[in-house]
Amino acid sequence: MAKGERANFGSKIGVILASAGSAVGLGNVWRFPYETGNHGGAAFILVYLGCVLLLGLPILIAEFLIGRHSRANTAGAYQKLAPGTQWRWVGRMSVLAGFLILSYYAVVSGWTLEYILQAATNSFAGKTSADFIASFQAFSSNPWRPVLWLIVFLLATHVIIVKGVEKGIEKASKIMMPALFIILLVLAACSVSLPGAMEGVEFLMKPDFSKVDGSVFLSAMGQSFYSLSLGMGCLCTYASYFSKDTNLPKTALSVGVITTCVSILAGFIIFPAAFSVGIQPDSGPSLIFITLPNVFQQAFSGIPVIACALSVLFYILLAMAALTSTISLHEVVTAYLHEEFHLSRRKAAWLVTGGCTFLGIFCSLSLGVLKGYTVFGLGIFDLFDFVTAKIMLPLAGMCISIFTGWYLDRRVVWGEITNDGTLKVPVYRAVIFILKYIAPVIVSLIFINELG
Ligand code: TRP
After folding, report:
1. Helix axes 171-192, 287-299, angle to 10 degrees
2. CB-neighbour burial class of residue 14 (10 A; exposed 0-12, middle 13-18, buried 19+)
3. The pTM is what?
4. Is 70 in the pocket of ligand 1 (CB under 6 A)?
5. How many Å apart are CA 284 and CA 35, to the nearest integer?
6. Strand intervals (E) in 186-254
7. Which of 80, 176, 325, 437 could form a disulfide with 320 if both were Cys (CB 3.0 to 4.6 A apart)?
8. Is the CB of 23 under 6 A from ligand 1?
9. pLDDT tens digits, residue range 280-320?
């Protein structure tokens, strides 16, 4: 690559897979089910779907167009498109959000490595759900093991980031995404056929609107931004590597459909199984780690080899899905430091890896030895999750929609969305309308409702 020229994704499918690889991750398989469980099931899912359609997709298109038009990292993008204005703070907030998310996300990613090991050494065999709960608690509150896995995971992310965009990110996503989808389908089928699973299916499909309150809206909105990787410049940074003829609305739709399908599929794996073995749907962040081992044990109790092989494969794929997401988070912060502070990519990447390891250790310990230390009643891990997913991402999303709807030159917006008029985009007017009026109003209302 010539000096000063930016990297590009090599193929169309690579563009979609890398973006979807960022979107699909622990947010779908780990966070979506426990948020759904905490907020009563089907009704939460409906609100979530509404948020994806009405807020997520238009803002995703906006983020894409900001990235591709500016061809810069998130913070740089605002400086290019709105030089000398305060808009640069939106970019900076996004970078900070990415840094904080990566710190605790890597902790959970590390857990998946532990579970690969446990699955491979067949330590799920013969355990009851009470055993799985106890062993998860013992593991996550252990001061050493989770921290060790956290470091391993961040180093793996680091290596791929240093290798560069096309070789690392794109190649990795191309293989892992389809494989993950297939194994999720198999698991959903197994889970639904467990005894007593129908109660879980009902939980997912029969909305109980009496459970809908302000916190459901805030959480569903947060989850929709989270699972689309919105509001922290991930997709904006990726879009800066897109080519001129990438169809932005179509790519956004593909990413939205893929990530939503994976989330719903994860729901169909977790809840039928949880109800079947008597695990509370509102068990919080530990939900998938105590439910899934049960699925493998129960669905294949007669054929332990398959139970073992399938569970190893599943946790490997989950770790990989997490990896494509940590790569995207890391890339945002690395690109920012590299381009804004003129550090070498290598140095920038080390700073990010080091910083996230440091914060990640506190997040991890907050589930064990540092459990007593809370801020606003939340431990460090939960605090990072709350502040990023429920405050910073929606706030940044709102700013992005105002920036695109009101500030940016309409010709630029039109040019990017329609590729200078070569694409027919029937939803163009609707997207602009949402960005200008609907998104800012809804996000503000949800915030005000929660604060009041
Ligand atoms: N979307 C990813 C997931 O669902 C997590 C993620 C990656 C993310 N990049 C992000 C979340 C940017 C918010 C913002 O697992």
Report:
1. 60
2. buried
3. 0.92
4. no
5. 7
6. none
7. 176
8. yes
9. 999 889 999 998 888 888 777 778 888 888 888 889 889 98
